[in-house]
Amino acid sequence: MLKIGLLGAGRIGRVHAEAISAHPKTELTAISDAVNDAAVGLAAEYGARVQSSDEIIGDSTIDAVLIATPTDTHSDLIEAATQAGKAVLCEKPVDLDLERAKICQKAAGATGQPVMLGFNRRFDPNFQALKAAYDAGEVGKAELLSITSFDPAPPPVSYVKVSGGLFRDMMIHDFDMANYLTGQIPVTISAVGTSVVDPEIGQAGDVDTAVVTMAYADGSLAVIKNSRRAAYGYDQRVELLGSRGLLQAHNVLENSVVKSTADGVTGAKPTYFFLERYMAAYRAEWDAFTRAIQSGSNVPVTLEDGVAALAMAEAATRSAKSGRPVAMEEVF
Ligand SMILES: NC(=O)c1ccc[n+]([C@@H]2O[C@H](COP(=O)([O-])OP(=O)(O)OC[C@H]3O[C@@H](n4cnc5c(N)ncnc54)[C@H](O)[C@@H]3O)[C@@H](O)[C@H]2O)c1
Q: d(Cα 175, Cα 3) in Å, to the nearest integer?
């Protein structure tokens, strides 16, 4: 049984607490949070003990830590945990700052400890099936990848202010999905963003709606569309046009009933948000981490993957500000 310390008992920390405790080979042993009451409440639900993050990292009885704290703490905690001999699963993104993330990658790499990044969408069964079909050559060579990712409602502006902006906080998942599906990193990135959903997000210096286009060395293209608001729920779709056909992963709906009457044809909405849509993916992500740690094999999503996606977010942020395409070699 692996003993796990969870750092951060907020929105995503609660999701991971469930996955860790539901897994037959891991025990949620200790929880920390900067707000002690948050850790106490979650620890009571799972029978874990409450410790500070430093205490968990220094605790020789803990085998691995899951970092679910705000983004600006990730690099410091990854470095401290790996230097203390812990395996790490850390939430995305690696850091707000690309240069800091690269330093973290080097420092953690030098310890030899496994570090996995929390790109949970790689573990969604629909996207995995799409990738398997593409890798098997079923639609030929990729020519145009389209990723749609709309949240149902924007986060509080207080979160936006510390998030690093839409490209680093939200679209980072889609950058990683593009890398995962195509197996390559783009050559150039062009981005345009606006704040039509909530003017306060614009006043905070961020955008809530954005489109990115990416060009690859092999001549193929990708487009990513993000919005912080979709009135009908969490819209998560992928479409891959290849030389011999099209692969599409549609939304997961609340139910599969379609009503057809004289008034028209209607069906259920997409599931509400990430908790509903991706709970199976978070469990599969945790299982993949656990298997890698126990078998000594490589983790399936690396710090290198995290740095690559962050570099793409950096390029998109610069492109949206300057209004010109940004070459990946300018940032990476
Ligand atoms: N993969 C996903 O689907 C997904 C979804 C949401 C958030 N996230 C990522 O997870 C991270 C946390 O996001 P959230 O929405 O859960 O935020 P949150 O604010 O709800 O929770 C973060 C918690 O960490 C605590 N904290 C702060 N510093 C700490 C420290 N040094 N040690 C221990 N606890 C500390 C805070 O008090 C808070 O309770 C962010 O990096 C975000 O990008 C990922």
A: 32
Give per-residue pLDDT as tens, 295-327: 999 999 999 999 999 999 999 999 999 999 999
Rounded distance, CA 86 to CA 28, Å? 15
Q: Does residue 290 lie within any of the structural domains?
A: no
In short, whether 9's Cβ falls inside 6 Å of ligand 1 is yes
pLDDT tens for residues 243-263?
Answer: 999 999 999 999 999 999 999
pLDDT at 332 over 90: no
Ligand 1 mutation pick, 91, 127, 171, 206, max ligand atoms within 8 A of CB: 91
In terms of domains, do 109 and 140 share one?
no
**C-beta 66 within 6 A of ligand 1:** no
Burial 2-35 (b: 16+ CB within 10 A, else e): bebbbbbbbebbbbbbbbbbebeebbbbbbbbee
Q: What spacing in Å lies between the alpha carbon of 1 and ligand 1's midpoint?
A: 26
Domain span including residue 38: 2-113
CB-based contact 318:168 (threshold 8 Å): no
Is 11 close to ligand 1, i.e. is its CB under 6 Å away? yes
Q: Is the CB of 10 under 6 A from ligand 1?
A: yes
